[in-house]
Input
Amino acid sequence: MTSKNWPALEGIAYGGDYNPEQWPREVWDQDVALMRAAGVNFVSVGIFSWAMLEPKEGLFDFTWMDDLLDLLHANGIAVDLGTPSVSPPAWFFHAYPEARVTLKDGTVMGFGSRGMASHASPEYREAIARMATALADRYGNHPAVVLWHVHNEYGVPVAEDFGPRSVAAWQRWLQRKYETLDALNGAWGTAFWGQRYLDWDHVVAPAATPTIANPAMKLDWARFTDDQLRECFRIERDILHERTSQPVTTNFMAHQSWNTDLWKWAQEVDVVSDDHYLWSPDPDAHVGLALSADLTRSVGGGKPWILMEHSTSAVNWQGHNIAKRPGEMRRNALTHLGRGADGIAFFQWRASRSGAEKFHSAMVPHAGQNSRIFREVTQLGQHLKDVAEIQGATTKADVAVLYDWESLWAHDLEWRPSDDMQFRERMRAYYERLWRDGVQVDFAHPEADLSQYRLVVAPTSYLLTASAGRNLTQFVQNGGTLVVGAFSGIVNEFDAVHEGGFGAPLKEALGLTIEEFLPLRSGETCAVHYGAEALPSDAWAEDLALAGAEVRGTFDGGPGDGLPAITRHSLGDGQAWYVGTRLGVTALAPVLADVYADAGITLLDRPETLEIMTRHGETYDFVVVCNHANDDAHLSITGTDLLSGTEIDGQLTLAGGDVAVVRTAKEERGGGR
Output
């Protein structure tokens, strides 16, 4: 990350998106009074305000923003000031209709929603630079402003643009990357289906085609799109860096958005921030929340980060928008805190009466301040003051889970051996097993330094470069334990099958390669004999060619009947495990138990539903404990619960649905029952 500092705030940042332009001026005074009552010290403003700030091209009106920032500052509320580049006004698209986004089928998107203009539009880039400059010059020294917030959720709801300007930018991008057409043709394998290019102007984008487009082209297109979005971010960030002293962020959507490579984006921001919303169809959505929080912290290098948006209750954009039950918002917020967030914010402060998000929950709901939600908002504000000393504390993990957006992009392209093998499903299954086992994890890129970890888990590494294969092999040789999920190490960075066949980059580490994929039909199942257990399996089997690995599990039934399903291989001072099938969260338990034993990882004796997170400060550790069950749970620990002020002498009893934040002596460890 760049060198700017954390926002100039005391304690945990607490608040949300504030959109006062939707309300009469007299409501603003009511809002700041309620903010003070709720303990709010931080709000994001201006994110969707372009039309009000620049009502005509080049004509700015800052009167209302001046009034707003002065009002917030007078009431002790710091501002995360947005640049409104996510939503250009109607006059912009009227003047520059060619700046609209074109979909792959040729449809040109119209105005009236939200989302970015074409990332390749010079008029758009000029306009966002003009706006960022005007805001920086006007408010760079305003005492309310502690953070700049560029755009909003890059890549959501649209990232790709197939218009002529984007295609021209794509051709220039490819020329910089490959330099020669021979290099491009070789990387894309254009000899297949007669796709060879002899002129740069003939290189098309992967728009609608009679059958699937070249997968290597589509992978590069995903990289190009990500790079173009990041170029637009840098235009604004560089202006803000040049003209102001505050740090700059943009809000990610870790594991919920798929078209931005956050390992790269995290290097561009001064402070990492993330938006997270529970997925209503998931009855254990708090596990997905934990995954996103760990991923956000990890891309930021383990430094504290800001939860820029989550919801007080239901969202409005899912098929079934499920309201949060009493206490759930508190658990969600404090779980993010436990996983490294030093800022907790919501979308939004006051519920909108009009527009597409009028049914989205807010800190001040339509029911007003005399509501359960606002009472819980106020309670949470007090809690964050009570635990303020946790600020700056960090996490430590012995386990890394490999996560690579380029592998995700490649994995989820068309014409794979089985539609049932999906990146997100496999990532969630392995992560949830670790979560239920109470294992604190970081996420890591496959080419990162892994030497600090005892165990590395690669749930789904379809695209794995040769250098990443060498990195993982060295990790095992040096004494680490590696576990690799099925359909990994298949292709290189060009989506071409590795020389040496499936799994070639991991052959030395795993002691095997894959002769053939043996996917099951939809709905078919088989089993894996693992010791005395029969583990249920579905979707996937493989015919493995062993080269030193020992068989630990064997297929029973299905196309792989009698073949090895799970293997273990010793190499140097370490061990590498391979799971060549799709096991669910429960079936993974006995396998990972043996993996933990290899890695020297000891689990706490605790209920699966008792989530325990530890942050390490200079003087104390802070253990955040969430009970996701209805019954009481117990944890052996000594310290002070900062939420209740209770001294805990050896055992914490936590009621169903409750949360504790326990300040303990350094390296305090406990066990639950």
